[in-house]
What does this fold into?
Amino acid sequence: MIITEKAAERAKEILADEGKAAWGIRIFIAGESCCGPSYGMNLQEEKMPDDEVIEKDGIKVYLDKEASTSLAGRGLDYYVGEDGEGFMFTGGPSSSCEPGGCCGSSGGSCGH
It folds into this structure.
């Protein structure tokens, strides 16, 4: 997975705001939506067994085994637009979903 500078910077801000600058962001599969897997994100202090760790600009992103497989070759970006803001995954089949669509408002694989 490729992490954009914008996503890394926003992750740094979130971690600093929470007083957890040394922690990382964990991405995991939270279920299924109409566009495919739904991903969850939370703050995590350290790697769990079987996690893949990706580092970008001092930020650690932990991916569970299933998320690592399904997000291979995709990107993590941070989106700001008229319909809101948030982390989103780019590339892959789910990127064709429309913001605010079936999975867009649920934080699913489209991420808007």
The chain has a mean pLDDT of 83.
